[in-house]
Automatic annotation (TrEMBL):
<protein>
    <submittedName>
        <fullName>Cytochrome P450</fullName>
    </submittedName>
</protein>
<dbReference type="Pfam" id="PF00067">
    <property type="entry name" value="p450"/>
</dbReference>
<comment type="similarity">
    <text>Belongs to the cytochrome P450 family.</text>
</comment>
<keyword id="KW-0349">Heme</keyword>
<dbReference type="GO" id="GO:0004497">
    <property type="term" value="F:monooxygenase activity"/>
</dbReference>
<keyword id="KW-0479">Metal-binding</keyword>
<keyword id="KW-0560">Oxidoreductase</keyword>
<keyword id="KW-0503">Monooxygenase</keyword>
<dbReference type="InterPro" id="IPR001128">
    <property type="entry name" value="Cyt_P450"/>
</dbReference>
<dbReference type="InterPro" id="IPR017972">
    <property type="entry name" value="Cyt_P450_CS"/>
</dbReference>
<dbReference type="InterPro" id="IPR036396">
    <property type="entry name" value="Cyt_P450_sf"/>
</dbReference>
<dbReference type="GO" id="GO:0020037">
    <property type="term" value="F:heme binding"/>
</dbReference>
<keyword id="KW-0408">Iron</keyword>
<dbReference type="GO" id="GO:0016705">
    <property type="term" value="F:oxidoreductase activity, acting on paired donors, with incorporation or reduction of molecular oxygen"/>
</dbReference>
<dbReference type="GO" id="GO:0005506">
    <property type="term" value="F:iron ion binding"/>
</dbReference>
<dbReference type="InterPro" id="IPR002397">
    <property type="entry name" value="Cyt_P450_B"/>
</dbReference>
């Protein structure tokens, strides 16, 4: 089998269970060029960790952008806002260091811990909406809205604005991918500029009326705020959180519930001892990394695992493969919530881009699994409505995840 032509995260067989192919790549061709991505795929734990740590040889600048050239009409619309997508995940030091320091404070363990009561309240409110029905599409009614509402809280925007923010964030993803008809690209450019203006206005308003939220912490010092950021950096990074912190977390919840449903003995252990939930969250992230992989660009001619890589080449760090590497974990395909591995998983990457939202993601995972298991007795995969995976290059998760449980009848006053 030729990995170069076979590897395709969008292919249905690789969407269902890509792990045998990853194992084969680790054994036979640990670094290979994938035509579907136009990038070199890195599959072994040690190589991925080495690339993630070495920001001199492997850059993140423009790592998520396509090389597509926009039609003039689209560029003209984007010029009315900020043309460039300047965000943390796509930057290198020294800019990265300066922006990251702001985010380290904004998402510090203390600030995240303070959000816990709110996260619990949102989770319970969502479950209240379907607990009596006995069945639900978990993605639509819980795993998608939960992290969306939590990011809204963190940023400090009204919940009623979330659909608008989501539209703008989706538009940005389509622009980044670049491969859409010109009319759609133009529509997305308008949505994206609208979102930039929305955040620009909110950030400016925080200068006169500071609140305890993230938009206040992002307000640039040159307009009277406290952050050593340009307005463009503040706006682009606020927008980036909508993508970085939303569907990643949705996928962790969906992947986790599916793993637990498929391993009744692990589910029983977790129900018997809820103190295992934090370890279970990390084992879920190891087994089914929501960020399957992310790109880097080779900064200077180099070699990796014996493969010559020219400057400018793109790499795809396959975190989902690193987490199943037999050199890093014994029995890597076994789901064991008591595993507590000596080697940390790479679901949040490593080095300077290590997920700055990891504490929040772990909190959301912990609360989600605790509340779902406590409130949905006998929860199981739906007997007739199958789960459907989402085809997407970067993220691995579910489009639909129907579940059923033994619902208590709704109380009535009749
Ligand atoms: C389970 C959920 C999540 C997963 C699996 C995840 C995964 C990741 C990964 C793999 C990276 C490194 C990207 C790279 O290779 O360069 C990253 C970076 C990042 N994540 Fe997360 N993430 C999650 C949740 C969140 C949340 C909740 C937030 C914030 C609300 C967040 C914000 C960010 C940001 C801003 C970065 C860029 C950090 C930097 O470049 O320094 N993430 N995340």
């Amino acid at each position: 089998m030729n990995l170069s032509t076979t590897f395709d995260p969008m292919a249905p067989d690789q969407t269902d269970d890509p792990y045998p192919l990853y194992a084969r790549a680790r054994r036979e061709q640990p670094v290979f060029f994938a035509e579907s991505l136009g990038a070199w795929v890195v599959t072994r734990y040690a190589d991925i960790a080495a690339v993630a740590r070495d920001t001199e040889r492997f850059s993140s600048a423009g790592a998520l952008e396509s090389s597509a050239v926009f039609p003039d009409e689209v560029t003209a619309i984007l010029r009315t806002g900020y043309l460039e997508f300047q965000s943390l995940v796509q930057s290198d030091p020294p800019d990265h260091t300066r922006v990251r320091n702001v985010f380290n404070k904004a998402l510090s363990p203390q600030r995240v811990a303070a959000l816990e009561p709110k996260v619990r309240a949102i989770a319970d409110e969502l479950i209240d909406g379907f607990v009596h029905d006995g069945e639900v599409d978990l993605i639509e009614r819980f795993a998608f809205p939960l992290p969306g509402a939590v990011i809204g809280e963190l940023l400090g925007v009204p919940r009623s604005d979330l659909p608008r923010l989501k539209r703008g964030s989706n538009a940005k993803q389509i622009l980044l991918a670049g491969a859409a008809p010109p009319a759609l690209l133009a529509e997305c450019a308008r949505e994206f500029v609208d979102l930039q203006r929305y955040f620009g206005a909110h950030i400016e308003a925080r200068v006169d009326e500071p609140r305890g939220d993230l938009l206040t912490l992002l307000a640039p010092s040159d307009i009277g705020g406290t952050a050593p950021l340009t307005m463009q950096e503040a706006v682009c990074n606020a927008i980036d959180l909508l993508a970085a912190g939303h569907e990643t977390t949705t996928d962790m919840i969906g992947n986790g519930m599916t793993l637990l449903m498929a391993h009744p003995e692990q589910l029983a252990a977790l129900r018997a001892d809820p103190s295992l939930v934090p370890d279970a969250v990390d084992e879920i992230l190891r087994m089914e990394a929501p960020v399957r992989g992310l790109f880097r660009r080779v900064a200077v001619d180099t070699t990796l695992a014996g493969v010559a890589l020219p400057a400018g080449a793109r790499l795809f760090l396959l975190y989902g493969s690193a987490n199943r590497d037999e050199q890093a974990y014994p029995d890597p395909d076994v789901f064991d919530i008591r595993r507590r591995p000596a080697t940390p998983h790479l679901a949040f990457s490593k080095g300077i881009h290590f997920c700055v939202g990891n504490a929040l993601a772990r909190l959301e995972g912990r609360v989600a699994f605790e509340r779902l298991l406590a409130r949905l007795p006998g929860v199981r995969l739906h007997p007739t409505r199958p789960a459907e995976r989402r085809a997407f290059i970067i993220l691995r998760g579910y489009e639909r995840l129907p579940l059923a449980w033994d619902a208590a009848p709704r109380e009535t006053n009749a």
